[in-house]
Amino acid sequence: MRAVLLGLALAGAAAPAGAAEPEQLFEKGMADLAAGRLEAACPALRKSYRLERRPRTLFHLAECEERAGRIATAALHYDEYLDALERLSPPEQRDEAERQKLALSRRDKIDADIPWVTFRLPETAPKGTKVTRSSKASPDAVPVVLGVPVPIDPGEHWVRTEAPGGPPRDKRFFVNRKQRLTIELTVAQPGDEARMVRYSPPIAPVRAVLPPVVEDGLPARRLVAYIAGGVGLAGLATGAIAGAVTWGQKGTIEKNCGGGFCNAQGESAADLAGTMGTVSTVAFPIGLVGLVTAVVLFATEPDQARLGSGHPPRIAERPTPLIAVSASGRPEGYVGARWTW
């Protein structure tokens, strides 16, 4: 008899502790809500409402979800709260009058911002295909209603299709406030999983080895090639003209010079021929070096699509042609060219 009474006493002592849990969760949730700790407040209020379905808990849960940006969930809870008020007694309804006004106002305010998403399966989807969706805030998968707009919280979501006997197929999507979106779903057939191609991520990120781009969008290597080509053409043209002028003075020199002496006209022609000869001698090698440089730069220009792991070169580190020329005396001259890397 004592054992039976003791058991009853223990059961009676445990009952108040269980009854106090919803209230404790509610108070904790309200404290977190007041402090702005929404990710802690909403789960506490949700659990409190599951343990004891009180309208005021549901109202504050809707308030928490709204502040967290989950406006579709908040609208659902506001609707559930307003429906629950109709089942209360008149005195209880009077106690909820202020919250009722707030719920109606907030529900109308967020209504226009709620996103709506329509999910569609292809006509070829096997009969019995399951479609579920989840989100970061609600990781538990819930069934999806197909073919009609469904209110969804803004943010990132996942939808999964799974045909009978086939592998699941997940699709991630994002939806914003006020957005109307249609998601065309795909279904994996049995055997698709074996045919899936899996790509391994690269061991380390690779960087492109491409010529640097100057402000006008022209690669520096090509710019140098253009300059070298222009110098080469100018040098060859100058050498040809100077050579022609030198050759043209030959007859005048022969007529007006003899025995190592020249009259005024012969001396003038000799001076001009000497100067032009030096110019021609200098200009031809410069033109040749410039053209060869341009051809080499064009021929060895890297493919724009080629990638590598090296550091991108700076313009100052690129091969730079350096052409040094010196001339002395008349009519002799000296020309030199040096390529510096």
UniProtKB/TrEMBL annotation:
Q: Tell me which positions the record assigns to the signal sequence.
A: 1-19
Instruction: List keywords of the entry alphabetically.
Output: Membrane, Signal, Transmembrane, Transmembrane helix
Top-rank lineage group of the source organism: Bacteria
Q: Any transmembrane segments, and where?
A: 282-300
Q: What protein am I looking at?
A: Tetratricopeptide repeat protein
Organism of origin is: Sorangium cellulosum
Q: Recall the taxonomic lineage recorded for the source organism.
A: Bacteria, Pseudomonadati, Myxococcota, Polyangia, Polyangiales
